[in-house]
Specification:
Elements (H helix, E strand, L loop, with lengths): L15 H16 L3 H8 L3 E10 L5 E12 L5 E8 L4 H17 L5 E8 L7 H14 L9 E5 L5 H15 L20 H19 L8 E5 L3 H12 L3 E7 L2 E4 L6 H10 L11 E3 L1 H5 L5 E4 L18 E3 L11 H6 L3 E3 L1 H4 L2 H15 L5 H26 L3 H20 L3
The structure holds NADPH dihydro-nicotinamide-adenine-dinucleotide phosphate and 2-oxoglutaric acid.
The site of NADPH dihydro-nicotinamide-adenine-dinucleotide phosphate has 27 residues, from helix 7 and strand 7.
């Protein structure tokens, strides 16, 4: 029996790092970036891998691998979530860290990009085992994290509970309470109002902005949302609130379809009362996660994981618009097919930036020792998301490129200009 938890193998097909680099290369070429700057932007500033021996509930010791990659800290402290998932490996974390750099630059917040992850399956672990893993990871990253250095947050498989453990462990090690070291915390520990829904809310703002460009009336529009976790469930709920008929939702147990629309609040209540799963939800017909992606809806929101839309299924997509709630849900191999079909894609580094935007607000509130109202947070984050959408859309028109490449161009220009002005290399 193995006590070492092997990280997921690096994928040679549909590798997220490759997908990120292909879009990056295109944007760099259009911007006429120098070769020196190309490598400055490409190579991560820091990569840390740690071994984490954890005592499991049955007394055995298992050794997990954890990662933190700081892609860039030129715009400010690095920022990015921590992922607990069996598919985590260093390549995935490197791609996710770079996406954070571009994302923060697209929405014009003063952060660089980072990401962390542990190759583990939290669904198979007790709360105590997860807590020991999170605390061990925090101790291993004491010289990486810091409110002015690198500020983690939740991602897939983690949430406020894990962020609370991180803050506690970090604060104990430093001998004082330092809540600005992490965002996405519970409210009582200095979390921000609105952070839980923030990513889904930004997805909703992006979807409505895209619908406006396509002249789609939200009250007549339909949507399918893949993933019913933090991002997917709030995106579905907020789209529903704005009049959109959400015909399909899904989680790892499968997808649930109803052409008259799913009662999203009922689905959320069902999931919360059913150990976090939609398994058995009866307000809809059960279909597969693959079938959800090819439904004849106006708006498709992939909000679960990477590389679900690939060369193999892109030609089957019927949606008029894809709003990427997840990071990297479309692999680069699908880009040309999707663009040729005329589908408007609001890319991940724009569409899901509402989360990090409100994380930024949380950090600002922690630092000034004050709490903003939910109304102020929502108004400010909606404005940031709408301005970013308009800027990326205008760039896509100016250069006649898809919004994805336009978003990379906006981001890369900002980061490379920052390097030029700071100089010293
Ligand atoms: N949380 C945030 O603020 C942000 C998250 N993101 C990105 O959004 C995506 C989702 O993150 P988040 O909502 O936080 O994660 P969660 O862990 O809260 O939810 C993930 C959801 O995806 C489902 N899922 C996982 N694997 C599959 C699969 N193979 N097929 C179908 N569904 C699956 C999960 O199902 P189940 O519950 O059954 O396991 C769950 O419903 C990730 O790509 C993340 O990086 C981006 C920006 C910010
Ligand atoms: O809220 C944050 O700081 C980061 C969220 C995140 O990991 C992401 O946007 O992918």
């Amino acid at each position: 029996m193995t006590h070492y938890i092997e990280p997921a193998p690096i994928k040679d097909k549909e590798n997220p790092l490759e997908s990120m680099m292909q879009r990056f290369d295109k944007a760099v070429e259009l911007l006429g970036i120098s070769e020196e700057m190309y490598y400055i932007l490409k190579v991560p500033a820091r990569q840390v891998t740690v071994g984490l021996p954890i005592t499991m509930d049955d007394g055995r010791i298992k050794v997990y691998e954890g990662y933190r990659v700081i892609h860039s800290n030129i715009l400010g402290p690095a920022k990015g979530g921590i992922r607990f998932d069996p598919a985590v490996n260093l390549d995935e974390v490197r791609a996710l860290a770079a996406w954070m750099t571009w994302k923060c630059a697209v929405v014009d917040i003063p952060y660089g990009g980072a990401k962390g992850g542990i190759s583990c399956d939290p669904r198979q672990m007790s709360a105590g085992e997860i807590e020991r893993l999170m605390r061990a990871y925090t101790v291993a990253m004491l010289d990486v994290f810091g409110p002015d250095r690198d500020i983690p947050a939740p991602d897939m498989g983690t949430g406020p509970r894990e962020m609370a453990w991180l803050m506690d462990e970090y604060s104990k090690a430093k001998g004082m309470t330092i809540n600005a070291v992490v965002t996405g915390k519970p409210l009582v520990l200095g979390g921000s109002l609105g952070r839980t829904e923030a990513t889904g809310r930004g997805v909703m703002v992006s979807a409505l902005s895209g619908m406006d460009k396509l002249r789609l009336n939200p009250y007549k529009a339909t949507a399918a949302v893949q993933g019913f976790g933090n991002v997917g469930s709030h995106a579905a709920s907020l789209l529903h609130e704005r009049g959109v008929t959400v015909q399909a939702i899904s989680d790892i147990s499968g997808a649930y379809y109803n052409d008259r629309g799913i009662d999203i609040e009922a689905a959320m209540r069902y999931r919360d009362a059913n150990k976090g799963t939609l398994q058995g939800f009866d307000g809809a017909e059960k279909i597969s996660n693959d079938d959800l992606l090819t439904l004849a809806v106006d708006v498709l929101v992939p909000a679960a994981k990477e590389d679900v839309i690939t060369h193999d299924n892109a030609h089957l997509i019927q949606a008029k618009m894809i709003v990427e709630g997840a990071n990297g849900p479309t692999s680069a191999s699908a880009d040309d097919i999707i663009n040729d079909k005329g589908i408007l894609v609001v890319p991940d580094i724009l569409a899901n930036a509402g989360g990090v935007t409100v994380s930024y607000f949380e950090w600002v509130q922690n630092r000034i020792g004050y709490k903003w109202t939910l109304d102020r947070i929502n108004r400010r984050s909606d404005r940031i998301m709408k301005d970013a959408f308009d800027k990326v859309f205008a760039t896509s028109q100016e250069y006649n490129v898809p919004m994805r490449i336009a978003a990379y161009m906006v981001a890369i220009k900002k980061v490379s200009d920052t390097y030029k002005f700071r100089g010293g290399y």
